[in-house]
Amino acid sequence: MKFDTPATENPIDQLKVVGKPTSRIEGPLKTSGTAPYAYERHDAVPNQAYGFIVGSAIAKGRIASIDLAEAKAAPGVLAIVTAASAGTLGKGDFNTARLLGGPEIQHYHQAIAIVVAESFEQARAAAGLVRVRYTRDKGNFDLASSLDGAIKPPAFFGTEPDSSFGDFDAAFASAPVKLDEHYTTPDHSHAMMEPHASIASWDGDKLTLWTSNQMIAWSVGDVAKTLGIPRENVRLVSPYIGGGFGGKLFVRADAILAALGAKAAGRPVKVALPRPLIANNTTHRPATIQRIRLGATPDGKLTSIGHESWSGDLKGGGPETAVGQTRLLYAAPHRMTAMRLAVLDLPEGNAMRAPGEAPGLMALEIAIDEMAEKLGMDPVAFRILNDTQVDPEKPERKFSQRQLNECLRIGADKFGWASRNPKPGLTRDGRWLVGTGVAAAFRNNLNEKSAARVRLDRAGRVIVETDMTDIGTGSYTIIAQTAAEMLGVPLDRVEVRLGDSLFPVSAGSGGQWGANSSTAGVYAACAKLRTAIAQKLGLDPAKAAFANGKVSAGGKSIALARAAADGEVVAEDMMEYGDLAQTFQQSTFGAHFVEAAVDAATGEIRLRRMLAVCAAGRILNPKAARSQVIGAMTMGAGAALMEELAVDKRFGFFVNHDLAGYEVPVHADIPSQDVIFLDEVDPTTSPMKAKGVGELGICGVAAAVANAVYHATGIRVRNYPVTLDKLIDRLPAIA
Amino acid sequence: MAPSDDFPISRRGLLAGGAASVATAAVARPAMAEAAPSRAPASPPTAKVDFEVNGTAHSLELDTRTTLLDALREHLRLTGTKKGCDHGQCGACTVLVDGRRINSCLSLAVQHDGDRITTIEGLGQPGNLHPMQEAFVVHDGYQCGYCTPGQICSAVAVLDEIKAGIPSHVTADLSVAPAVTPRELRERMSGNICRCGAYSNIVDAIVDAAGVKA
Ligand code: FES
Ligand code: FES
């Protein structure tokens, strides 16, 4: 099915099942420990051995020699694979560095060997006996000192590095009110709770990987390419994924080394990345240095917006696209953005939840707060005044939906913004300095083609199969809701099977495109199945209504199951897209409000209240969508207050590479959170009329926190995270 | 290969730089390995341990390095208990031992001879969920589900701890029995990380389950 004209009324609009806050259908499995994650598939294949990965102890250079004698002789060891014994390996399209390093080393903790043994304890002990001699090369590990050599990168996933409109330089130079500031965001780690893990099993030249991966079809391709085997010989199975946040978009060392280890040992092999290896072995969100220039008239109209961002990555990598949202968020006749990329020898940078927008808004939404203050304006009113309903760089192009101002107004109202003292540092509650902050949320909507197969069985049950993944997003549930709505059956008559490369290729989970895209694919398959069913029952497919387990048309009403009386009825289809996303700018919007308290003596920061108001198309399941947003708010709070991969600039690695050193929010850090979804349907996105929310929720949160801390203390911190050491010597005198 | 002149490593720098110490230690060892032939392979020492898991008696002969977590996940194939870090940093491996919660990755299986262990599987199963499991489903107290068994085991134990009058860091008055408040729950649950960020819903679920129990 091709979606190339805005959706009109369709069966989803009945909203008998879709749009309801249904509990997750896989909930009983997850809460009872019976949902199987990759490393846990004892059932999948017998005789599994254990693999343990050795990571490089240098960031850049070469392996001079590896001595495996002691490790090979260790109890229980079955095989050891290094680059020297692995044969020729390719590199996946989505990988920047090779997944098995040696002799050349590209980054710290790059995998250099896998030790396979009978037990986990034996594999781990033997891995410690692998003796490696390195030749260390000088590397470049510091972004701030690499700006001069940074280059203009090629377009990255369709985003041009530079943009300009009007005459920024002249307009900024002559602006009556100006802001010109630098901001920094550090490297972030996804730190999903389930480590990357895979079980590999060979049957002749065919490989099956039970793994934890967000993008099945991409990863089938990259496994095949890396191992140099046809993609038809690779099967990936990933029904449950213990979090990804972008960190599992790609094939990683666990999968490739499990496959190599299994081949060498002649047995299935299971591998999980040890937690201390993950931060340096896998990908991370790259640090940015950003410069923002804003020019405005005294009455608060922005005349010029300039946003530049510098980030680094390994050779061949890409930029953190931190200026993207600035091209679309606020009106101003004169504008420029630019991204520059430095080559760094740190581990591979790549997508993490809302790549680009998350760090971009961390900076931009502080700058907007600063500008409002310079103008003596309320930051909510300032944003509302500078709204645009068209793409500012292409004014003929409208947003399909844009309710940013409504989000801001409703949020301000709910949060009690009106009673805020506009002057910072003046609100006290006992020992606490109290402040509130606001920020806009913005994330583009993406639609990706997505296919599904739907079966009606003899019992009248509906079975949906697609390689879509559920990384905690609620895919199982919204796909079941979609099929139930389309075929007029209750939710419990639908079974959803996900994450298997034997199933039709879906959009996968990334870029907050999953919900709308994957359900649109299920919609297409269900539409085809409806036709097949109606024809089977001798009813007019154009008139057939599907409700209450029956199909009705022309005065006749027949039980749905009858269509499958002599065998399953099966339909498969894919949703593809025309150019509506070019005709209209499709984006999601929100507003974050935060109340923070700062200890007047110690600078300790506590969050007291968080509210998000989101406008993101039809919300397919408000319960799951709300969870996506509160989770993103939590991750945004982490980015604001604690998350930072500390770079050892001498030796080139992230020092705090475990969950004790890399701090993420815990229960005590997060107050009760509120989420409001505005009523919205977007007929330009798909027949589902939905958009994404999972990444929108993190966009702007950190800036709202930073702005609240500023409001509490009068101290402006422009270098994340906002920690007490950046406040303590400047706190207001205690009265 | 000694580090080049670009990397003068002082003793202080060596101690400060983990990578350097690993790299240079690795540099030094092969000579020793060449001088002394590899040690003869020895079978790892094993020990017998008897314990009860979810009401069923088990007798295992284990490599003494096996953690309680791996005994459950790999030997008994009770994979509901999760491994998030294996270092006591995340709480995903929380189980109840004689009614008290512990991080099962931080204790060796052989330390648990004679113990009574309850895992998430023992609390309830689909169709017969424990009220805490039920509350997590209703309040969407999870997303990916990976931290969830640990959160639920911890939550069950937390309510028992409060009932038993055990104070926490945020208990204001030690002479009064602690109450089930969001503040107490957030403090006591802080050893269980949820990177999906379901905290707000988890607290709602626990409050709800506490009501069910009362
Ligand atoms: S696995 Fe035990 S605390 Fe993380
Ligand atoms: S539900 Fe994913 S980490 Fe908690």
From TrEMBL, chain A:
Q: Where is the Aldehyde oxidase/xanthine dehydrogenase a/b hammerhead domain?
A: 32-138
Pfam families for this protein: Ald_Xan_dh_C, MoCoBD_1, MoCoBD_2
Q: Its domain of life?
A: Bacteria
Give the InterPro entries listed for this entry: Ald_Oxase/Xan_DH_a/b, Ald_Oxase/Xan_DH_a/b_sf, Ald_Oxase/xanthine_DH-like, AldOxase/xan_DH_MoCoBD1, AldOxase/xan_DH_MoCoBD2, AldOxase/xan_DH_Mopterin-bd_sf, PaoC-like
Q: Which SUPFAM superfamilies match?
A: CO dehydrogenase molybdoprotein N-domain-like, Molybdenum cofactor-binding domain
What is the protein name for this chain? Xanthine dehydrogenase family protein molybdopterin-binding subunit
Name its species.
Sphingopyxis soli
TrEMBL record, chain B:
> Pfam families, per this entry?
Fer2 (PF00111), Fer2_2 (PF01799)
Enumerate the spans annotated as 2Fe-2S ferredoxin-type domain: 47-123
Q: Which UniProt keywords apply?
A: Iron, Metal-binding, Oxidoreductase
Where are its TM segments located?
none
PANTHER family on file: ALDEHYDE OXIDOREDUCTASE IRON-SULFUR-BINDING SUBUNIT PAOA (PTHR45331:SF1), OXIDOREDUCTASE, IRON-SULPHUR BINDING SUBUNIT-RELATED-RELATED (PTHR45331)
Name of the featured protein = Aldehyde dehydrogenase iron-sulfur subunit
Q: What organism is listed for this UniProt entry?
A: Sphingopyxis soli
